[in-house]
Design goal:
The chain has about 70 residues and is mainly alpha-helical. It is built from four helices and two strands; from the N terminus they run αααββα. A hairpin with a 2-residue loop joins strand 1 and strand 2.
Amino acid sequence: MPCINADGTLTSTARRVLAAVAQPLTVEGIREVTGQPLFHIRLSLREMEAAGLVTGADGCYTITPAGRERL
């Protein structure tokens, strides 16, 4: 389940995850905020990290400037 559509737009799950990580959150914290299943969140975070939209450190994720632009 990709979080970035073929046309470059974000899926609804990706938008929710990006909005949630406006402040640093763990995967579990993101689940609590978004209500999304953990496997969706983990997949989305991997894809968005590879695309430079989020960054992860010490178990927490936060949105990057590129991610803010995409929201």
